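For practice. Supply one:
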Amino acid sequence: MLQIPLLTIIIFFPLAGGFIALATGREHPLLCRWISLSTTLVEFSLVSSLFFLHLTPQAGPTGIWLLAEDYAWIPSLGVRYSLGLDGLSLLLLLLTAFINILCILISWRAITDKIGSFHFFLLFLESSVMGLFMATDLLLFYLFWEIQIIPMFFLIGIWGHEDRVHAAVKFVLFTLCGSLLMLIALIAIYVMHGQQTGVYTFAYNQLLNTRFGPTTEMLLYAAFMLAFAIKIPIVPLHTWLPDAHTQAPTAGSLDLAGLLLKTGFYGFFRFAVPLFPLAALSSMPVLIVLGLGGMFYTSWIALAQTDIKRLVAYSSIGHMALMVVGIAVWNFLTLSGSLLQMINHGISTSALFVMVGMIGERTDSREFADLGGLWTKMPVYSVFFLFFALAAMGLPGLNNFVGEILILVGLFKARPVVGILGFGGLIFTVIYILRMVKDALFGERKGEHVLWDVNAREVVILLMMAAPILFIGLHPGPALELLDQPVQHLLTQFSENIIRKAPLI
């Protein structure tokens, strides 16, 4: 393990840059933008440097990690500042750093008010998400989980669109309802573990050994899962997300789709299932039903949308639903595909939100009634739009195809009926995305606004997003290799916990 606290630096470096941006934003807005962009670029370089350290998994006091940090924080309460990095965390850190570069670039001209505060909240959010993806002390995880609500509330509530305050409050209320129940469950685990072992701690690897009765385990699991299901979001707990996406500025939508939704899925994978294996096992059929239902429901609702941004929002929920089905079927292929699809979804759906943001800047509208005919007016823009739409549809050679085919193969291998239904859900996805492409790019021009094609800054943004979509689609091996160890470890850990805790039933 390194002597330099690199993981801590990665967490707090964006926050430090955010404070500098806040201090310079009022008097020097252009300098504020460059400071923020430089901060995200340095952060991306720090995360990327982890790939060149040739790290290998090592067993330590907090588990098996590529890199770990562990310090006493509040010894009297058994709280530690404990961080761990594995292949999954590494990919998510890279995604987080990448998305935030795009957030700064896409907001370069779109945000003209309170520039310093805007960039501070963007970088504050980046720090909180970075910490969440590495925290291995459950109280530390919970703190990062709650902290991420604050910057997103302000990003939506201040820089959003016409109904932004309602959407921001709805986002906070939904998130807090689940989070408070998770806090109660976390305290209950802490107390029960202390009573059983005499050691009061929030350390994840120690809490894994806590024993529960079947009813207690199910209640605790439900509390954790409610918090994670709201953030994923699983239908019918999804109603906050279309409003949040629709009202958020483009950068806010990127952070929502690319990062915040992944925190719920990550928490489910990393904490809920290992801590409560018996309850998780019994809930898998319910999750399969909710996931499949979510795929068909969101596709049906997406077809009825007249706002292109709202359609992309429902598309995001539908793609996450397939990942829920994948993790609920619970085999190596579906788990690997679902985790890879987290990364894919973060890139391809964020790209669609960027495209919607660009056309919104030109037309002041997101309604299909004001679009059409963009292929002849904005040919470069239209090519990129079609490319990202094909990625969202799962075209072979692009990133979403890899994750989806792994999930489908795993579904057909374990549960053929679920595989057939999952495939049917993907067909519905193709239908509404093709409808979006047809209504936006082709046909007669409906609006009266003067349109211009993408400029140099926008081309850079679009190329940055297109590159990983092609790379993962054509060469997914490096990403899948990073996921092998976390998936294998989870499957082994899950089986061992099932055997160890089964006698309590």
